[in-house]
Design brief:
This protein has 17 helices and 9 strands. It has helices spanning 2-13, 16-29, 34-46, 50-63, 68-80, 84-101, 107-127, 130-143, 147-161, 169-182, 212-222, 241-247, 261-270, 288-291, 360-364, 380-392, 408-413; strands spanning 199-205, 229-235, 252-255, 275-278, 298-301, 316-320, 336-340, 368-372, 397-401. A 7-stranded parallel sheet has the order 3-2-1-4-5-6-7, with no helix packed on it. The chain has a two-stranded parallel sheet with strand order 8-9. The chain is globular and about 70 Å long.
């Protein structure tokens, strides 16, 4: 049905109000159309109209109790509200039931199952259960039919592994080698380096925008002599005001957000970059598949990540004496470490900051400690340190801000 296809296209394009309008029009003439009601529920969910979306799901289940799409929309309703306990319960149930609801050789089965394991991995990460998150993301990667998404899910597993203090180093090594295996078919470029008047350095990242990486990168760019170097940017992100400030520091700027990894690699190679610096590692929307083609003769990772990429095509990893103390083996790194004798993080705010005010403790009569961070980083060891600090300063208060604390369910779990 053309109208149903149009509604699905609106969803894919992110035009949720148009999808809602077209599905309501279709349901007026065909109220029994379950798929139209499913698309409507998805459109309502994306507009944060959760009660209305759940009402449509209820109507779907009255006619078709085993509708897999409706179950996924329901899961997203709770996921978007950070009701992580309910989300995990629904996901675990859905994964078990999906085997009964859909043929295992169907495209929808593989897609729904992979997506469910990915959502479960994200939920476990948010909950501070990184070992379970790693396994969930690996399940998602194995089941994912799309090669690009398969690689992304594997990256998610490697990123989650950074939170898992109990994972043996041998398992982390196997994980890193597995990532290289997924990209083994990427044909590397050959390089015939010719002397240039200026060395060409490229920086590639999905975070050349308002993001912590930008605030650490800016001072490096600001002090990099363009008399000696030509500096190229490859931005895999939508641009904002911070992007504009960064752009002024580069010789050339190319937005590769719509490029495939192969197309982005071709652009880097065509620009004759001598040294390509990846700033994302295995973080969200990373550019590591571009580096797998080795579009530059020398490739480095650093600043935006702190662990191995696992890629043979990455030659060096930027670190320092604090992140990787000298005298200790660089266990698990496939790259050669470049250890700076000082911190490799240099922060520069991109706007004028106000002067510090009076100390609140003088007014309050107690010191307030704060942690405004991803709560997945708050391990048992961290909690033990906090406990010791609070025992030594018994009048102190501790202020926590984190996404998981934004819902009653999240607070109950924590």
């Amino acid at each position: 049905m053309k109208e149903l296809e149009k509604g699905s296209q609106f969803i894919q394009a992110g035009n949720y109000s148009a999808a809602e309008e077209s599905m309501r029009a279709l349901l007026e003439v065909a109220p029994e159309n379950i798929e139209a009601r499913y698309v409507l529920a998805a459109a309502l969910m994306q507009q944060a109209r959760y009660a209305e979306a759940l009402a449509e799901i209820t109507r779907i289940r009255e006619c078709e109790p085993e509708h897999a799409g409706a179950a996924m929309v329901e899961i997203y309703v709770y996921q978007k509200q950070d009701k992580v306990a309910t989300e995990i319960r629904l996901l675990e149930t859905f994964i078990q039931r999906l085997r009964k609801w859909l043929p295992r050789d169907s495209e929808r089965y593989g897609r729904f199952l992979s997506e469910s394991w990915s959502l479960l991995g994200s939920a476990y990460t948010l909950l501070g259960k990184p070992e379970k998150a790693v396994e969930a993301f690996l399940h998602s990667s194995r089941l994912e039919p799309n090669q690009i998404q398969k690689v992304r899910e594997y990256s998610n597993a490697l990123f989650a592994a950074n939170y898992a203090a109990e994972l043996p180093i041998q398992q982390l090594d196997r994980l890193a080698r597995g990532y290289q295996a997924l990209l083994a078919d990427c044909e590397p470029y050959e390089h015939f380096v010719e002397a240039k008047a200026k060395l060409r350095i490229g920086f590639i990242s999905p975070d050349l925008r308002r993001h912590p990486v930008a605030f650490f990168l800016y001072p490096l760019l600001h002090n990099l002599s363009q008399a000696q170097y030509e500096v190229f940017a490859y931005a895999a992100n939508a641009e904002d005001a911070v992007s504009s400030l960064l752009r002024a520091q580069f010789t050339a700027w190319c937005n590769i957000s719509g490029f495939s990894a192969q197309q982005a690699a071709a652009q880097v190679y065509a620009d004759e970059i001598d040294i390509l610096v990846d700033l994302s590692g295995h973080t969200k929307n990373n550019c590591l598949p571009v580096l797998a083609f080795r579009p530059a003769p020398v490739q480095i990772c650093g600043i935006g990540y702190f662990n191995t990429t696992g890629l043979k095509a990455v030659d060096y990893f930027l670190s320092d004496v604090y992140c990787d103390p000298p005298g200790q083996p660089a266990t698990g790194f496939s790259e050669r470490l470049l250890r700076l004798p000082h911190s490799h993080f240099c922060y520069m705010p991109l706007q004028a900051m106000p002067l510090p005010g009076a100390l609140p403790c003088r007014k309050n009569g107690y010191v307030t400690f704060g942690c405004f961070n991803n709560f997945s980083k708050v391990t048992d060891e961290v909690l033990a340190v906090w406990q010791e600090i609070l025992c030594r300063v018994p009048t102190a208060h501790l202020l926590l801000k984190s996404r998981i604390l934004g819902s009653d369910e999240g607070q109950a779990v924590v």
